[in-house]
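quick one
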Amino acid sequence: MYALAPSILAADFARLGEQVEQIESAGGNMLHIDVMDGVFVPSISFGFPIIRSIRKKSKMFFDVHLMITAPERYVEEFAEAGADGLTIHVEACQCMVDTLEKIRSLGMQPGVSLHPQTPVSAVYPYLDKVDRVLVMTVNTGFGGQQYIEGCTKKITMLRDEIKRRNLPVDVEVDGGVNRDNMDKILEAGANILVSGSSVFKGDLAANMHYFLDGMKKYEEA
Ligand code: DX5
Ligand code: ZN
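structure w/ D-xylitol-5-phosphate:
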């Protein structure tokens, strides 16, 4: 399975509902939702009311990326707000296994993420507990940054480890993904691409089609 997950962090929030509909009608089936608390990362984004509002408008898979300290405090609330997948940071949570199990028990798909500075082996203990690993390829907390080249080898190492252990885990890459580097990232072993600025800047539908068409050959291979 290959998927594109447009990140609404780059949306025009005055027209959020409309842009979510445009993504879905352009063939999108996954939406990336970045929640930041101003503590785990310097910035604050948005929370439950936004997720609840767009949940009413969309059937897409809501891929919620929690950049918050002690995410175990809010698992029920995100389930209730309409998250389908809930990804927590390995650096943010003291009780990873319990929290990942709780996420699954509430009917969501658990995911684990890591900062670009964190060694990829930090997520290996949780690979049998998650549906996806979200590899951050820019400094966590802001959109519109440049892809950190040194992260490509982490994607490859992670994909190799998942293959070696024969686990059904998605490798999702988040940060600085664009038209020029998407192939390199997919060839390194990613199967889900998150993209904020490269999807929302300019013609949203045309950008969606560019990414989705570019991913087709991997799906067919
Ligand atoms: C950053 C967020 C990303 C961000 C990506 O911490 O996790 O999802 O929206 O934005 P771009 O694609 O612009 O790098
Ligand atoms: Zn994200």
